[in-house]
């Protein structure tokens, strides 16, 4: 989606406080207790002086190698049949036990939809590992035609956005649908709708623009001042890792990803030290982990959870009691969005994983094929109500 604008980069403003209570999902509809209530501002503040943990705390906590291993657990293939009568192995038993806490969103579909009656669903989707399989070459993480059809169909009935760590342009290229809203760089580059109230004209966070179809949209880039620094670090990381076989550095516009999926494990420490060496001179950047990827990001208080809040507000849905947000994702960065929905009793997070792991999500799906099944079920459910 190309954008045209002559406006300067957005400058962030203080939030407008909201005291009105958020959505309340009754505890009987949740797999387990959701925790404390949560509220947030209509516009999200990004404090520059807030004390944020050191960019290397995550790595130093357990050592470079341990942190890299823990962020990328092996993905064991499990059968789709959840019956234990056929003698599943230990990993299947552990997974089935884990699903007591994170039930399948497919087997729990009727339960979810019972709560959705009379509500407007807003759908948020990660890309890699959710709509497309995890592959060795990140440039070939293509979604299937059947998945694209499923996403197009669901977007015809529900407001739908993709929130990815990829650059917005890259994920738009992969998906190729104009019916959606896109947020790249973990929500630091958002194309969203113009708010129905028209108050965006007074919000310097947003740049009013148009897409290729001539539709008015808002471009929100809270880390725009970091662009020159990100480009500089990208070039440095390409240079310093070029001698490490299998390493791949990806410029995602507002963050840089260093993929080590194809790097021999004995060289993982070398990868981590190379990234550390670059970051030592850039205190305004921090290091986070994904699945077999190290990500260099700006030190600002912004993540996928705040991107969900921003998009809900842009859609005019943030203060509505009849809205059910659903977020589907598979990686650690998606936990920020799950947490927002859980703490506010506002909606459902659905974790895509074939291995047990702790999460802020309410439900689970095993893999992209189950994600597609869930999306198709949403469409059938909506059609049955029309």
Automatic annotation (TrEMBL):
Needed cofactors: a divalent metal cation
EC number(s) reported in the record: 3.1.3.12
Keyword Protease belongs to the record: no
Keywords: Hydrolase
SUPFAM superfamilies: HAD-like
Molecular function via GO: trehalose-phosphatase activity
Similarity remark: Belongs to the trehalose phosphatase family.
GO BP field: trehalose biosynthetic process
Identification of the protein by name: Trehalose 6-phosphate phosphatase
Highest taxon listed in the record's lineage: Eukaryota
Any Pfam family hit: Trehalose_PPase
Function according to Swiss-Prot or TrEMBL: Removes the phosphate from trehalose 6-phosphate to produce free trehalose.
Catalytic reaction equation(s): alpha,alpha-trehalose 6-phosphate + H2O = alpha,alpha-trehalose + phosphate
Enzyme class: hydrolase
């Amino acid at each position: 989606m190309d954008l045209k604008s002559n406006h300067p980069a957005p400058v962030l403003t203080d939030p407008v406080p909201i005291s009105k209570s958020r959505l309340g999902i009754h505890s009987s509809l949740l797999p387990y207790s959701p925790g404390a209530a949560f509220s947030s501002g209509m516009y999200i503040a990004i404090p520059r002086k807030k004390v944020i943990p050191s960019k290397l705390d995550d790595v130093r906590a357990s050592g470079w190698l341990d942190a890299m291993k823990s962020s990328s657990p092996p993905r064991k293939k499990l059968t789709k049949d959840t019956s234990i009568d056929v003698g599943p192995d230990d990993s299947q038993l552990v997974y089935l036990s884990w699903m007591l806490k994170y039930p399948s969103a497919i087997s729990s579909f009727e339960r979810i939809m019972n709560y959705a009656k009379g509500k407007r669903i807003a759908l948020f989707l990660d890309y890699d590992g959710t709509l497309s399989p995890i592959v060795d070459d990140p440039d070939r993480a293509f979604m299937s035609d059947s998945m694209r059809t499923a996403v197009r169909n669901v977007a015809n009935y529900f407001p739908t956005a993709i929130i990815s760590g990829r650059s917005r342009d890259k994920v738009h290229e992969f998906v190729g649908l104009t019916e959606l809203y896109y947020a790249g760089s973990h929500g630091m580059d958002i194309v969203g709708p113009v708010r129905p109230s028209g108050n965006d004209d007074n919000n310097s966070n947003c740049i009013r623009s148009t897409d290729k179809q001539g539709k008015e949209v808002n471009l929100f880039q809270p880390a725009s001042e970091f662009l020159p620094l990100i480009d500089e670090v990208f070039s440095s990381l390409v240079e310093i890792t070029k001698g490490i076989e299998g390493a791949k550095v990806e410029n995602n516009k507002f963050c840089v990803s260093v993929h080590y999926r194809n790097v021999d494990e004995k060289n993982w420490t070398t990868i981590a030290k190379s990234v550390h060496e670059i970051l030592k001179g850039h205190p305004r950047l921090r290091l986070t982990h994904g699945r077999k990827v190290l990500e260099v990001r700006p030190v600002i208080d912004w993540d996928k959870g705040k991107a969900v809040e921003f998009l809900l507000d842009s859609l005019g849905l943030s203060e509505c009691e009849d809205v059910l947000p659903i977020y589907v994702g598979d990686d650690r960065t998606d936990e920020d969005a799950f947490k927002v929905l859980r703490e506010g009793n506002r909606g459902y997070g659905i974790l895509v994983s074939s291995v047990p792991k702790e999460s802020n999500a309410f439900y689970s799906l095993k893999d992209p094929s189950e994600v597609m099944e869930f999306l198709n079920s949403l469409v059938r459910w909506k059609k049955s109500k029309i």
